[in-house]
Design a protein that fits this description.
The protein is of the alpha/beta class. Helices cover about 45% and strands about 15% of the residues. It has a domain of about 180 residues: D-Maltodextrin-Binding Protein, domain 2 (3-Layer(aba) Sandwich). The N and C termini lie far apart (about 60 Å).
Length: about 350
């Protein structure tokens, strides 16, 4: 950590996203917002990809040890260590979206559970939070049509986090590889099908050239958020005012990212359809139902772990209240959209 004191501190941050990807753009937006509102107090410096660690799974250890001051990634990078981390990345499909997931983090007890997992269960010298709501992820890229759950069985399927557990129950063979390696794996036959994230990044990494069918929607990953982590000792030394500044920056970055996605994703989905000549279809109802059944089994199996169950119970209580209100209160969007967009 460089700087001249508490009023002029530079923290070194690393992400593992490719510099030419929209994910790195979102990470840089967060950095720019912190630097804009933290002028004279704190600034972030984004290190080049691979400067300290090359794998997302190594970010936490580097931050905890002080090799990095901060990192931008996803909590499920620690999935192999503890599957409960994935509950803070792509949780079960309880009818919520990622904005409502961030609401749970802020006002539904999620932040306290996250802190408990990181600092108490795993004893990491880390403080952090979720930032950047992402919409439902597509079922993915396929070389053959998917008409029913039977068409998924036996497929080697690139995915990540708890989606791997869901996919395994559906009879698929999940393959955990980095997102930027997905297109080559699909083109070479290392995997038969793959999901990554959204139309913009999927197109950027070349997936629209690797398979002819793009199946959108799905319950495997209905919401996802980034994770920003800091070395706790270093952040504590900067005081509560800096921490409050970073909280404000996180909310501002989340809003900016949400709005930017509205511009990017419809544009790039249309390019996938019209320029790349990919067939874009929605996931069959039978597949969606099978995914929910698989989620129920995953939840049952993993809730043997008391902490996993504790988080699940908190998420279900929040979604029952919040989504229950939305469904009762909000006017149906589909009806209004159809009325004003008649053929």
């Amino acid at each position: 950590m460089a700087g001249t004191g508490a009023q002029d501190v530079t923290l070194k941050l690393q992400a593992v996203w490719s510099e030419d990807s929209v994910l790195h753009e979102f990470a840089m937006d967060y950095v720019h917002i912190v630097n804009a509102i933290g002028a004279g107090r704190i600034r972030l410096e984004m290190l080049p990809r691979g400067a300290v660690v090359r794998r997302g799974g190594d970010l936490q250890g580097a931050v905890a040890s002080g090799a990095l001051d901060a990192a931008h990634g996803v909590a499920s990078n620690q999935y192999a260590k503890d599957k409960a981390y994935a509950l803070f990345t792509t949780p079960p499909s309880f009818g919520w979206n990622s904005v409502q997931m961030l609401g749970w983090m802020r006002y539904g007890g999620g932040q306290a559970l996250y802190d408990e997992l990181v600092q108490k269960v795993h004893g990491q010298n880390i403080t952090g939070y979720l930032v950047g709501p992402m919409p439902t992820q597509p079922l993915g890229w396929f070389k053959k049509p998917i008409n029913s759950p039977d068409d998924l069985k036996g497929l080697k399927y690139r995915t990540g986090g708890l989606s791997a557990d869901v996919s395994r129950i559906l009879g698929m063979e999940p393959v955990l590889i980095p997102g930027n390696e997905t297109a080559d794996a699909l083109a070479s036959g290392q995997v038969d099908a793959a999901e990554y994230l959204n139309p913009t990044i999927d197109r950027q990494v070349g997936l629209s050239k690797s398979a002819p069918i793009y199946v959108v929607q799905g319950y495997h990953q209905v919401c996802e958020c980034f994770e920003v982590i800091y070395n706790k000792s270093r952040l504590d030394a900067l005081g509560d005012e800096v921490k409050q500044l970073l909280d404000i920056a996180a909310d501002a970055a989340s809003s900016s990212m949400l709005y930017k996605q509205m511009a990017y994703y419809p544009r790039d989905l249309e390019k996938i359809r019209s320029e790349d000549k990919v067939t874009v279809v929605q996931a069959p109802e039978s597949v969606l139902e099978a995914q929910l059944q698989a989620w129920a089994k995953v939840i049952e199996d993993l809730s043997i772990d008391p902490f996993f169950r504790k988080v699940i119970d908190s998420q279900r209580a929040w979604t029952k209240r919040v989504i229950g209100f939305d469904l009762q209160w909000d006017a149906p969007r589909e009806r209004a959209f159809a009325f004003f967009n008649k053929p």
